[in-house]
């Protein structure tokens, strides 16, 4: 046999093989697949009851429009899918709108619609619930209804794997997700909403008052936080996201409690300016420092910052800035206090003080009146820059001696004070000419 003939034979056999895609072809509804090779039978409308599993709201306007079409046709062209519910009663699994339309016509006096064609199929509770979800698959749905389908199908497949052998390998779930145009990420988002959304938020989601994106944002909060966001009246997605962001930001009370706890027992004069305090917080608290107290305070620290009372983490720089704005951290007060008390500064091991060597200090009394007048003239131009007196290499560790631009008192670069020891004037160690 020639090569082209062999290829044609293989292609013919391939086309004759049943394809799984045909099972999910959109031209053939799930309802038809479930009732394939079944023959309908007429069931009295009095013996039919709607399934409690049905979650879709059917507007009366849609029911009346369908009733007009059925009346024009003279019969129900597509039978309902039902199962035995006990005695002569049947539970409707698919065709709730057709049932309501026939009931509407029957109430109008059209008795020919008192008997409805139905496919009667034996199903377990799990199979019946799955059929309700799957037969609604082609109708236009809200995000809430899609969530119900995803959550319900996921639960049924997880709890009853033996009833859905085709889904054991996951292929059925993938096909359903493909038909519904959903990725695994979107499926997970719907499951998160179903598991974590509060009752009030779920009711708004059901009524389509909030979007799926808003529901997903709310689902990341606990029930109390969700109630606070909804109490603001936010319904639009950007409004809800803004309310959540403000809720996650630590309050002034949180900052105050954490600040007082962290700085308890500290001599804050050592932690000036703010950058020094930030470095202390990183070194002291930033290494897995956690606190859970009974005073309404808990925080979790890292090298980046601190998360207070389970709120959003803020950086140590922001923490110090907010503490300063609230009047908790007062660096200039600490500096003034240390200058006023004239307390000696701590020295590092091996460091010498210029005060121990008066021979290198300039004599304040030796300054002439002319020098003082010249200094006053240059004070406006030089602002708070330290006036360079002289450099020396005679004393190890001493690089420069200068004078305060305000009182002309001697200052040493070795100790590098922020303020003049005599008048408390703030110093800038960029030497003035």
From TrEMBL:
GO cellular component: chromosome
A Gene Ontology BP annotation from the UniProt entry: chromosome segregation
Sequence segments annotated as region (Disordered): 341-386
Origin: domain of life: Bacteria
Comp. bias (Basic and acidic residues): 369-386
Alphabetized Pfam families for the sequence: ParB_N
Protein name, as recorded: ParB-like N-terminal domain-containing protein
Organism the protein comes from: Lachnospira eligens
């Amino acid at each position: 046999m020639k090569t082209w003939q062999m290829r044609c034979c293989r292609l013919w056999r391939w086309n004759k093989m049943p394809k799984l895609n045909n099972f999910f072809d959109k031209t053939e509804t799930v309802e038809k697949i479930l009732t394939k090779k079944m023959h309908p039978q007429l069931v009295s409308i009095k013996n039919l009851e709607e399934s409690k599993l049905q979650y879709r709201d059917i507007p009366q306007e849609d029911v009346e429009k369908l009733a007009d079409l059925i009346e024009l046709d003279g019969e129900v062209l597509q039978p309902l899918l039902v199962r035995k519910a006990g005695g002569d009663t049947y539970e409707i699994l698919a065709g709730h709108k057709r049932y309501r339309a026939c009931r509407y016509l029957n109430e109008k006096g059209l008795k020919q619609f008192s008997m409805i064609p139905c496919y009667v199929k034996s199903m377990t509770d799990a199979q019946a619930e799955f059929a309700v979800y799957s037969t609604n698959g082609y109708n236009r749905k809200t995000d809430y209804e899609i969530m119900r389908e995803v959550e319900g199908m996921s639960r049924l497949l997880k709890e009853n794997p033996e009833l859905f052998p085709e889904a054991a390998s996951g292929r059925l779930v993938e096909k359903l997700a493909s038909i519904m145009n959903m990725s695994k990420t979107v499926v997970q988002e719907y499951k998160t909403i179903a598991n974590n959304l509060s009752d009030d938020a779920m009711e708004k989601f059901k009524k389509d008052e909030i979007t799926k994106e808003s529901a997903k944002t709310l689902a990341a909060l606990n029930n109390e936080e969700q109630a606070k966001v909804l109490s603001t009246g936010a319904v639009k997605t950007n409004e809800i996201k803004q309310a959540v962001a403000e809720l996650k930001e630590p309050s002034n009370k949180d900052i105050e409690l954490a600040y007082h706890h962290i700085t308890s027992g500290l001599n804050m004069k050592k932690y000036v300016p703010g950058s020094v305090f930030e470095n202390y917080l990183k070194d002291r608290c930033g290494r897995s420092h956690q606190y859970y107290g009974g005073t309404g305070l808990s925080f979790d620290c890292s090298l980046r910052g601190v998360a207070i009372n389970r709120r959003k983490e803020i950086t140590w720089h922001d923490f110090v800035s907010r503490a300063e704005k609230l009047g908790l951290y007062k660096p200039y007060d600490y500096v003034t206090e240390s200058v006023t008390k004239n307390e000696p500064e701590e020295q590092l091991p091996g460091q010498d003080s210029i005060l121990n060597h008066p021979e290198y200090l300039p004599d304040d009394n030796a300054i002439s009146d002319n020098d003082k007048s010249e200094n006053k003239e240059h004070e406006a131009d030089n602002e708070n820059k330290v006036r360079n007196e002289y450099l020396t290499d005679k004393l190890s560790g001493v690089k420069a001696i200068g004078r305060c631009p305000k009182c002309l008192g001697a200052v040493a670069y070795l100790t590098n004070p922020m303020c003049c020891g005599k008048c408390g004037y703030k110093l800038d160690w960029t030497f003035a000419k």
